[in-house]
Amino acid sequence: MVTQQQPNSSEVIYPESDGKPMADNTKQFRWIVVIEQNLEWLFTDEPTVFVAGDLLWYPVEGNNRLCTAPDAMVVFGRPKGDRGSYLQWREDNIPPQVVFEILSPGNTQREMNRKLLFYSTYGVEEYYLYDPDQNRLEGWCRSEDPLLDQINSMDGWVSPRLGIRFELGDELQLYRPDGAPFLSFAAINQLLEQERQRAEQERQRAEQERQRAEQERQRAEQERQRAAEIEVILQQYRDAFGTLDSDRFGELDP
């Protein structure tokens, strides 16, 4: 929520919490986590893309009454790392370029209008608002107009900054630039378990193949040994009969 707090007369303090919960219900919390964590995953190899959830953002130095905490935000051009709040003047004065909000029953229209004005005023390039109860998605994108313009249709929209695609079915589905869907921890866990089982099956098949190959090698070795033994016996017969024949032929000479 956008919050207003009174500054200290001697020193401006920028609180790191607005005292409000991250989410009003489990559905809102689940969506916040899914979006924030999948964005973290999307940019895990990008050292200068900072992703955060429910982090207070102060855009103006010296004014601690002016702040908001987007449910998720992405900042291009800033390093990863822990922060108690996002103090824009300490971040090369770079505002979050993309923000997400997940609507809850506790959010009023007036509050959301203030958020839209805040994001539009302080440099956000893309703003996405999803209502999971109504399965309604709205989006705004900055163009040449100094204010954010509402996106006419969000179904199939691709974020210019993130490259992710939004699709609306029974509920919102987001897709990475490579086409992979955003997944919950439970779904990721299930995929990891399936992959573990597949790897175990492959290991067992490889072990069975190794055992079969070893059995074939042993059979071949046994055949080789038997052939060698037979050859020895045959040679003994050749040697024996060869000697007898020579002796017999010797007795017949005149």
List keywords for this structure.
254 residues; alpha+beta; tt1808, chain A; 2 domains; six-stranded mixed sheet; two-stranded parallel ribbon; 3 helices; 17% strand
Describe the structure.
The protein has 254 residues and is α+β, with helices and mostly antiparallel strands. It folds into two domains: 26-182, Alpha-Beta Complex (tt1808, chain A); 184-254. It has three helices and ten strands; from the N terminus they run H-E-E-E-E-E-H-E-E-E-E-E-H. It has helices spanning 26-42, 109-121, 185-251, and strands at residues 49-52, 57-58, 72-76, 86-87, 98-102, 126-131, 136-142, 148-150, 165-168, 172-175. The strands form three sheets. The protein has a six-stranded mixed beta sheet. A two-stranded parallel ribbon has the order 2-4. A hairpin with a 5-residue loop joins strand 7 and strand 8. Residues 4-9 have low confidence and may be disordered.
